[in-house]
Write a structure and sequence with these properties.
By secondary structure, this protein is an alpha+beta fold. The chain has six helices and ten strands.
């Protein structure tokens, strides 16, 4: 699988998540559509979704419910596309969304591996491949980035690092959509800064590609530790997203 093929698959998935066409992400002008989750959208996407703004670096692809379509359309035409994902411009959008009962909710940066630079990294501990049947006792807070208890059926593959019989690091992936598996990683606090996370992440990326799936990695832009892990593991920024939801949902998250 080539870098180009992985990027095409990612754009195709984003199109399914929004209700647009893959080529909409490639043009040099913004594209705006009515939001429609496809039947093969990422499984963790939950309605209601007010709008979603996505950029692969060429433009902004906007999908919005009809109620806010005019606001979001004005926003992406008012500001340079790459400034639409940052303050102070975001305040312009958020203030107008709030007037209609909606609010900016999620922001994230997504990474894909560079097939030519996924490193072979080692750590001081033994590692082994884990499958779904091995995860049963691991749904605990210390592994909450690698595994998701609410979607156990999607946690499909992992690699663990062991100090004797003790699991000290875990990278695992969820089959969030048909062709793309998302990687999450955790390392026990007393074992950090030893290269465990990057060794596990890069090894798992290779295992996923060997299964003819596309590994992807998500982080908040401000999570510097996670960003460093992505880069060290051979991943590069691929696209960014910003999502708005009804005010009641966002406020509930903040309680």
């Amino acid at each position: 699988m080539t870098n180009r093929e992985m990027m095409e698959i990612a754009m195709r998935q984003s199109a399914e998540d929004m209700g647009c066409c893959e080529n909409d992400f490639k043009v040099n002008k913004n594209v705006i559509v009515t939001l429609k989750l496809g039947k093969n959208a990422r499984k963790y996407l939950k309605e209601p979704i007010t709008c979603n703004l996505v950029s692969y670096g060429n433009n902004i692809m906007v999908a919005s419910i009809n109620e806010t379509l005019d606001i979001v359309s004005e926003y992406v035409e008012k500001f340079e596309f790459y400034h639409c994902f940052e303050t102070p411009n975001m305040h312009w959008l958020n203030e107008r969304l709030i007037e209609r009962g909606h609010k900016i909710c999620f922001m994230a940066e997504y990474y894909l591996p560079d097939i030519n630079r996924i490193p072979i990294l080692s750590c001081a501990y033994k590692t082994r491949i884990l499958k779904q049947e091995d995860f049963g006792e691991l749904y605990r807070p210390e592994w909450s980035n690698a595994l998701c208890e609410d979607r156990k059926q999607l946690d499909i593959l992992g690699i663990g690092a062991y100090d004797g019989n003790t699991l000290v690091g875990l990278a695992a992936c969820s089959a969030d959509c048909k062709d793309m598996w998302q990687i999450g990683v955790d390392v026990l606090s007393e074992y950090r800064r030893q290269g465990i996370a990057s060794a596990l992440t890069s090894a798992l990326a290779k295992e996923i590609i060997n299964r003819n799936k596309v590994p992807f990695y998500c982080t908040a832009w401000s999570n510097v530790r996670s960003v460093r892990n992505a880069i060290k593991s051979g991943f590069v920024p691929a696209w960014v997203e910003m999502t708005a939801k009804p005010v009641t949902i966002v406020d509930e998250m903040n309680r």
